[in-house]
């Protein structure tokens, strides 16, 4: 299975980049990260539309599209790992879309296999990809009965 992560925003802080790499490099799946600087435009809908083009382009070959969205479904780590396990059996390419600070377009949400939320709290935008990386790592640990996950 291959995982593609397309994200608006670039990790510039080395400690955050190292943490992301730590989780991703430990996964049993091939992962590619595609980043794009946030688009600059005073009009929010134009910004979101420009970001949508980038996200669609990078994830167009994915058979499952998971869009991170504050209004998405919330899963326990176990439930998320079950989804990953099921996709791993049937799907070659999974894509995760992380929009900019203003969120993602309605069109992207409509194309999503799953809208995923990391909870009701507000998180720093760039932390979303690290949280995703950790949950992917945790999912692989759950799937392989590795002691990392103790739930």
Walk me through this protein's architecture.
The protein is an alpha/beta fold. 43% of the residues lie in helices and 22% in strands. A 5-stranded parallel β-sheet has the order 2-1-4-3-5.
Write the layout of secondary structure elements.
Layout: E1 2-8, H1 14-25, E2 30-36, H2 44-59, E3 64-73, H3 77-90, E4 93-98, H4 106-111, E5 114-116, H5 127-143
Parallel strand pairs: 1-2, 1-4, 3-4, 3-5
Helix pairs in contact: 1-5, 3-5
Order of helices and strands: EHEHEHEHEH
| Relative helix content | 40-55%
Sum up the overall morphology in one term.
globular
Structural class: alpha/beta
Mean pLDDT score: 94
Q: How many helix segments?
A: 5
Note the main sheet.
Answer: 5 strands, parallel
Gyration radius (Cα, Å) is 15 Å
Unreliable stretches covering 5 or more consecutive residues: none
Question: What is the strand tally?
Answer: 5
Which characteristics define this entry?
globular, five-stranded parallel β-sheet, single chain, alpha/beta, 5 strands, 151 residues, 5 helices
In brief:
The protein is an alpha/beta fold.
């Amino acid at each position: 299975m291959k995982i593609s992560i397309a994200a608006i925003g670039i990790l510039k802080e080395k400690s955050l980049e190292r943490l992301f790499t730590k989780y991703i490099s430990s996964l049993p799946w091939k992962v590619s990260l595609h980043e794009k600087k946030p688009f600059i435009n005073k009009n929010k809908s134009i910004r979101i539309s420009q970001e949508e083009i980038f996200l669609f382009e990078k994830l167009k070959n994915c058979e499952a599209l998971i869009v991170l969205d504050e209004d998405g479904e919330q899963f326990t780590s176990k439930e998320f790992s079950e989804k990953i396990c099921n996709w791993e059996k049937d799907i070659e390419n999974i894509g995760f879309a992380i929009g900019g600070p203003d969120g993602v377009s309605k069109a992207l949400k409509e194309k999503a296999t799953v809208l995923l939320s990391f909870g009701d709290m507000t998180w720093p935008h760039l932390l979303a990809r690290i949280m995703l990386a950790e949950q992917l790592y945790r999912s692989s640990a759950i799937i392989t009965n590795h002691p990392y996950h103790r739930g």
